[in-house]
Amino acid sequence: MNGSRLAAPIDHERLTQATVRKARWRVRRQITLSLLSFGKLLMYRDLDPTVWPQIGAHPIVRELFESRKSNVVAHASEYVFDEDHAPPVPHPDVVLDADSSQLSALVDAIRGRNLVIEGPPGTGKPQTISNLIAVALAQGKTVLFVSEKLAALQVVRRRLDQAGLGHFCLELHSHKSRKDAVLRDVEARLDASGSFASVPNHVPVQGRRCS
After folding, report:
1. Cα separations (Å) of 168 from 52, 144, 171, 172?
2. Would you tell me how many other CB atoms lie within 10 Å of the CB of residue 123?
3. With contact defined as beta carbons under 8 Å apart, do 106 and 134 qualify?
4. How many Cβ atoms sit within 10 Å of the Cβ of residue 158?
5. What is the pTM of this model?
6. Which residues pair with 2 in a beta bridge?
7. What pLDDT sits at residue 207?
8. Quick one: which of 110, 159, 176, 185 has the fewest CB in 10 Å?
9. In the 8-state DSSP scheme, what is residue 52?
10. DSSP E strand stretches across 57-179
């Protein structure tokens, strides 16, 4: 098949006659049946550059694929939040505990800086991601959290559930997502629509200072 059109039928008789004098050539009639999954077909079509003619001009996309033409690597600064003599730095309204380095990463992200957070296991990266999503939600933003591994999504989702923000999350991970589960999630969010109070100007901060 070619797209939605059937290929032209093959004349096996003529093909057999054309190859009868060919050494070690045989023409066999054979059919193969198989169950094919097209769950990733739309993802494949999204890779067609003609679908997104202007995406290459987007600054973030260009930075991801082309990187910055600079030999200097800028390291993020760690802000001081609790010292009386320090310049005032807006304290992010977090929903989970965060040390000073995590709060500094949140400040840079809120200010629109593109950054990479590195650290060995157990240093609180899912916690930082959860706080960043919560801060963005408080600002009325929509967040797309992408992860190759389903386990990473589930860890962040559990953190947000514990913070009472699970209703604002819709979990979709590759073709493994079940349609009935997605529909139940959408239904639950529609039922909860309008039942949440507006975000106050200041939310009590749950943070800890890293000494």
Report:
1. 28, 12, 10, 13
2. 14
3. no
4. 13
5. 0.64
6. 5
7. 39
8. 176
9. S
10. none
Look at the block and give the residue holding tokens 């802000």: 79
- In single-letter form, the type of residue at position 194 comes to G
Q: What angle do CA 133, 147, 105 make, to 5 degrees?
A: 40
Distances (CA, A) of 20 to 9, 28, 29: 20, 12, 15
* CA distances in angstroms from 180 to 50, 123, 149, 171, listed in the order given: 33, 35, 21, 12
Q: How confident is the model at residue 1 (pLDDT cuts 50, 70, 90)?
A: very low
Q: pLDDT band at residue 129, thresholds of 50, 70 and 90?
A: very high
* Tens digits of residue pLDDT in 184-198: 888 888 888 777 765
Classify burial at 169, counting beta carbons within 10 Å of its beta carbon; exposed 0-12, middle 13-18, buried 19 or more.
Answer: middle
Could you tell me which residues are beta bridge partners of residue 5?
Answer: 2
Per-residue pLDDT band at 86 (split at 50, 70, 90): low
Closest-CA residue to 116 (of 86, 75, 171, 56) = 75
Dihedral of alpha carbons 10, 13, 16, 21, sign:
negative
